[in-house]
């Protein structure tokens, strides 16, 4: 079954991943694809938008003669991750309530 992932949820996944450690773009895609079926073409616009929102910052490091662009969570990004996590808990609770059938009455 495929459930479409909202923009906000994908933002939260990227921010949560970067709360663990810094990653370069392809590695972020690989990690998220372990859980959610997304393409690189989906993820890079998300990274650009999160950077524009000042939730991420970037830096380059050399790797085998090429530069890799790494992404790091900012303080504003950490705060936004907290907002998304709170929203997710409420949303998840409400969906569980509906899907588990505990709503009789």
From TrEMBL:
Superkingdom, taxonomy of origin: Bacteria
SUPFAM superfamilies for the chain: Winged helix' DNA-binding domain
Pfam family, one: PadR
Protein name (Swiss-Prot/TrEMBL): PadR family transcriptional regulator
Species in which this protein is naturally found: Loigolactobacillus backii
Top-level taxonomy: Bacteria, Bacillati, Bacillota, Bacilli, Lactobacillales
């Amino acid at each position: 079954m495929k459930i479409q992932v909202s923009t906000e949820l994908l933002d939260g996944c990227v921010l949560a991943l970067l709360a663990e450690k810094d990653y370069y773009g392809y590695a972020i895609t690989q990690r998220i694809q372990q859980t959610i079926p997304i393409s690189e073409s989906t993820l890079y616009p998300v990274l650009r938008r999160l950077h524009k929102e000042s939730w991420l910052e970037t830096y380059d490091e050399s790797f085998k003669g090429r530069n890799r662009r790494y992404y790091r969570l900012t303080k504003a990004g950490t705060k936004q991750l907290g907002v998304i996590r709170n929203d997710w808990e409420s949303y998840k609770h409400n969906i569980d309530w509906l899907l588990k059938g505990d709503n009789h009455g």
